[in-house]
């Protein structure tokens, strides 16, 4: 079912009999055709996809992208278990069937939008901020066959590290999830950009402050470096990159602008003025 707010803004419902329905807010460029590409944008803890859509609208119109902003609402996808951890476990930490995962819903949403517009390209780009960034990096782990072209996790509060001896959700150790070394290596082989604002160093009310979270660092900036380092410790060929956005704290709109520059056709000088790729430095200093 489609509803139209403006000529370029559409909303559709993904009906999910296994869990909860998902309302998806779209930007559709005026030039949409079979050659258009898709970008999926994941909201933060405020669960405000319409605000996120607004920050992607102008860029999507200029660059012929269909942008999908799904709402994983608090009733259907409750708490960190339902959204940040993709519904893999319920609130009592019991494993759930894949058909009930938020990750499965996202893959199906992208496939249905692709079919609805007759897109040739089956792959999509993926960007999430804060809680959405947590969704993004775990999505690559739990949906290993999802057709993701590039994934960007911006300003995540904490991470599931590729650490086999660390208890899930801070690592991969869980008796029922099958997160083996081979699965971890398949994860680190997927391109993931860990994006962090260089001023996102506050221990604010939204940051998880626990003993296990603090082992990853005192703030989001430090924790992104820990995630990047853990990937390269497990796998020297790890394809994860660590990128800083200069002069930015925890603002989703500024981080979205930086992600858009990376997803656009490269303009080398402009990228250098906004972003600093510190992967090589972080790798040397591990």
List the SSEs and their pairings.
Elements: E1 2-6, E2 9-14, E3 22-27, E4 37-42, H1 49-63, E5 65-71, H2 79-82, H3 102-117, E6 124-129, H4 131-142, E7 148-154, H5 181-188, E8 192-197, H6 211-214, H7 220-234, E9 240-245, H8 252-263, H9 268-274, E10 275-277, H10 279-284
Parallel strand pairs: 4-5, 4-6, 6-7, 7-8, 8-9
Antiparallel strand pairs: 1-2, 2-3, 3-5, 9-10
Helix pairs in contact: 1-8
Looking at this protein, list some descriptive labels.
286 residues, Rossmann fold, disordered C terminus
Structure, explained:
With 286 residues, the protein is of the alpha/beta class. It has one domain: Alpha/Beta hydrolase fold, catalytic domain (Rossmann fold, 3-Layer(aba) Sandwich), CATH 3.40.50. The protein contains 10 helices and 10 strands. The protein has helices at residues 49-63, 79-82, 102-117, 131-142, 181-188, 211-214, 220-234, 252-263, 268-274, 279-284; strands at residues 2-6, 9-14, 22-27, 37-42, 65-71, 124-129, 148-154, 192-197, 240-245, 275-277. A 10-stranded mixed β-sheet has the order 1-2-3-5-4-6-7-8-9-10, sandwiched between helices. Helix 4 (131-142) links the parallel strand 6 and strand 7. The longest helix has 16 residues, at 102-117. It is globular, with a radius of gyration of 18 Å. Mean pLDDT is 92; it is low at 266-273 and 280-286.
């Amino acid at each position: 079912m489609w509803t139209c707010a403006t000529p370029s803004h559409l909303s559709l419902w993904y009906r999910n009999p296994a869990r909860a329905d998902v309302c998806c807010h779209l930007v559709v460029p005026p030039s949409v055709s079979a050659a258009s590409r898709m970008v999926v944008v994941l909201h933060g803890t405020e669960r405000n996809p319409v605000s996120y859509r607004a920050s992607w609208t102008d860029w999507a119109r200029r660059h012929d992208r269909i942008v999908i902003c799904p709402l994983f609402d608090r009733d259907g996808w409750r708490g960190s278990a339902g959204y940040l951890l993709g519904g893999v476990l319920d609130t009592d930490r019991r494993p759930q069937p894949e058909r009930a995962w938020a990750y499965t819903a996202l893959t199906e949403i992208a496939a249905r939008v692709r079919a609805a517009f007759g897109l040739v390209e089956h792959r999509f780009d993926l960007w999430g901020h804060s809680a959405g960034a947590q969704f993004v990096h775990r999505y690559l782990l739990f949906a290993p066959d999802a057709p993701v072209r590039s994934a960007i996790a911006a300003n995540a509060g904490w991470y599931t590290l590729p650490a086999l001896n660390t208890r899930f959700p801070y690592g991969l150790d869980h008796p029922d999830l099958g997160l083996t070394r081979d699965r971890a290596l398949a994860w680190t082989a997927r391109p993931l950009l860990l994006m962090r604002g260089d001023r996102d160093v506050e221990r604010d009310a939204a940051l998880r402050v626990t003993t296990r979270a603090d082992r990853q660092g005192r703030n989001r900036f430090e924790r992104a470096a820990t995630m990047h380092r853990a990937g390269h410790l497990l796998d020297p060929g790890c394809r994860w990159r660590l990128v800083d956005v200069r002069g930015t704290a925890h603002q989703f709109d500024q981080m979205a602008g930086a992600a858009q520059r990376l997803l656009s056709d490269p303009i080398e000088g402009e990228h250098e003025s906004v972003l600093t790729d510190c992967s090589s430095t972080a790798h040397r200093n591990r």
